[in-house]
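Retro notes
What went well: the complex prediction finally ran end to end.
Inputs used:
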Amino acid sequence: MSHDFDVCVIGSGAGGGPVAYALAEAGYSVVVLEKGPWFTEEDYYKDELACCIRNAYTPDLKEQSHVVETELDEGGWRRRETAQESSWNLWNGNVVGGSSNFMSGFFHRLKPVDFKQLSTFGPIEGANVTDWPISYADLEPYYTKVEHVVGVSGRVVDHLHQEPRSTPDFPYPPTAEHPISGLIDQACDKLGIHSVPMPRAILSKPDLGRKSCSYNGYCGSYGCATGAKGSSRAALLNHAVAGGRCKILPDSQVTRLQSDSSGRITAVEYRDRNDDIKHVDAAIYVVACQAVETSRLLLNSTGEKHPHGLANNSGQVGKNLLFAGGGAGSGRLRYAEFSTEEAQAMRQIGPFINRSIYDYYVIDDADFGEKQKGGTIDFVHLHPNPISRATRQMRGSDGLLWGKPLKRRLEQHFRESSYIKVEAFCDWLPVDDCFVSLDSKVRDKWNMPVAKARLGFHVRNLQVGWYLASKGAEVLKAMGAENVVSFASGSPPLNLMAGGCRFGDDPQSSVLNADCRAHDVDNLYITDGSFMPSAGSAPFTWTIYANAFRVADKLIERLGGNKLQHS
Amino acid sequence: MDRRHFLKITSTGAAATAATTASLPLFSAPKQQTGDDGLSDQQWRTLDAVLDHLFPSEAEAPGAKDVKAVHWLQHVLLDDETDEVHKQFLRAGVVQVDETSMELYQKPFVELQQDQHEAVLRNMEKGKQQGRAWLQEMIRYIFEALLSDPVYGGNPQAVGWKWLQHIPGFPRPPKEKRYFLL
């Protein structure tokens, strides 16, 4: 049977890029549908209005929105439509390369324990904890592949929870480090904690047809102007397109996956930039629209064999939505408290802090309770965005600050100190009250129901988030930081999402099998973070990239192997 | 007004002023703008005075006037991309300023002394209506005019960045790559 393409990939971010890259490289024809525009390095500038205030890289919420539900203290759920309350925006970068264009590239592998959480620690009441159907050993070669193909900079050091590696060290040395990193190391030494260089998906030297980092101090939330950041676009899609077998269709919003009486997908229905309805078909379909939109697309794609949505015959699509977070903290390094030389070093803009602590990845602390899963602590610079920073200064103890008192506070904030943030990642637990469904009222401009995300969370997230954040805060204090605060938060970081189509061996409790193929649909694979049945205790991107490369190998095998290998 | 029209206006504005003001449409208050932005000349004077009070000019530190914050607000009100509900909210706040002034001092805001300005705005902040939210939004827009890239017409000669010793990132957006043209 002839198709337009061998493989159709929906979504061009960290889940879609590896599939397009690997399949095209193996000689297969690939089409990638991306709802957003195709920006290149020529379009990305350090423009706070564009990235972060006027939201130039995400859809207009008046035309395409979401509904979120958060739990009320008195019980019940508060409904918000993001078109009205844009601070709950669930879009994270709808352009070719997806939100990987705007990541900071803080890269962490999962660790062996993350793959067998249930069998290691037992069940947790109120959480749908499970083991993964694959092990760390299955994913390790692909973490390594990402280091080399996407480009990960770092340095392996010995610490309590160092995961096994098939190579001794990273292919690229760490990105340039800020003098504050040394202060963190000293403080950790004093406290008997292992301070570890944080790997970054940023090239520390030119390679792979891309330039090195320019160290201008504006990374996360901004598109990269040099190509050093390992976005799906810069690292994978550009190469796939150059090879001639990958076609990208930007400004193409997929509205539905059509299926036949056997339940297989027959075509993708999408709207092109003129809003005309178009179709494309392929032997294999790969969905990677980021967790919320992936579940929404499946739920909107009903068919004869899929009355409740594609791949949803067990009612599992959208369930067990996950986030990465749990705790946070910050501290101020006031220049006046340090020598002139030290203060001068701290003022430096550009190099990265790049420090993580993994010592509490498993918490074995009698004061805290039974041995349990902990997480990762990252130390990062406060985001440099001046408008956002200034906006946070207008709240006084007795109402709004304005006039000269506000101006004096701005001077103090911007001129006299550096700020360090702690980001703590617990194992965000899968719960019944965190899921995606279709909203019954709100529709997008193509009249398709929008996704509704209920954002409940387990109290364990707060306990572990608090524990980790306060450990980070101890380090800040030991560095001589002032105004040190740390806290836990159940409010999910909306830019780091996964789950909704968990993989597993049992079709009754999972959407995908171990190969990330839908149990119910023979020609459907899902390769964004949706597959993750638990969050691990770190941001997801490296794991999404690695798993998508793993699934790509399964697809190549299924389609008959590498067509270009002659041996 | 669509994005292209916006570009046309801003280009013309830059050519017309030809000096330091970059790309905002010329608003030499008080000037005939009634109808386009939904505020009368009198209301623009009120808003100008509010912004000046919230962020006054000083010898060593730029204020709302120095960063053309009132032009910025006019831009927001003229921009088709701005949500109509938000525009109504912005205009309603201006109306509320003068209503509060009349109520407390039987004079419009621009005719009041500085301590009376303070009293009117604090009254709005503590009141039941959306006064606090409106004042927050005014301050936020002043910060946009103070700290966004000068290519957008505020922050002339990077006066805001220089004042706060803020080092911008590079590459900075050229005129043809402003966000509404992408």
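What we learned: Chain B has one domain: 3-181.
What to try next: split runs per interface for comparison.
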